[in-house]
Known about the structure:
alpha+beta
Amino acid sequence: MPDNLLSQDEINALLNAVSSGDITIKKEPVGNKKSILPYDFKSPNLIPKEAMRPLRLIQENFCRNLGFVLSDLLHVAAQVKLVSVDQISYGEFLMSLPEFTLFNLVSIAPFKGNIIMALSTDCLLICMERMCGRTGAIKVKERKLTELEVGVSSKIVKRILEEYRKSWEHIAEFKPIVESAQSDPSLVRIVKPTEKIVLICCEVKLEKVQCLLAMCFSSFVFEALAEKLLLHAQPSGEQEKQISGSITQMRTALWELPLGISAVLGRTTIETNQIVTLKQGDIIQLKKRPGADMKIFLGSEELFAAKLALKNKRKVAVITQQFFSEGA
């Protein structure tokens, strides 16, 4: 019998002593009671509350820049927006994806472990059509990519990952490398189906087709990145002074920035051969009568409606209506 266990005689003697009052049981003071925080080991919180804001800013910056990159690469309007930042089980992640999805297993050295970048195949098919010179409206049918198409699409995947690296570089530097690309999710498993992962979902809009782009982080990988996010979320006193000073300088520079305003009396349309034959003294007829309203523009934005008037023998524009809100 272990030394730290009581015998039956010792237990009986202890109970008799308590009953007779020879032993006083000391109670813990109410004021010193320790608070116990519940923790669910089956569903741990992978995203610290302080890290959520910088994490979302990184993803939103990535989406904005990727939209510009795809528009330039494909010569077509492309929009990318952040849909969600959440934590779910790896099995739920696989079940939520479209049937035809390309799974890219990506290493992010110097961090250990891998992430998954999942992209629906319809997005990749449209991109490949555009990169091969296809013009006009493109309609694609979702299907599994051939081995040749997977190879061709690697250029698009690498470009997306490069933008993702840039969006993180002021927080954490890493080098994303695609280790494998598969249509079968069972071949790119990074954790067990029941384990929690951090999932970042984005929506890519190409040719009126909405496609899915998802980044999947295992808890092991994300914990390392979360440490970097927390450091960035708590700037030092010197950093706060620099940020405050930069904002003040930017605000001052913006207030002193000269902007060109134009008052447009009217617009008309003439043919090219008429333009080249114009000479001094010719009259261009506008579609407005004297005293009609005119418009005032800041660049291409219409700011005010106005009327033409005279002041001290000089033509002036009298503002009659405002087209923007003061808080804009």
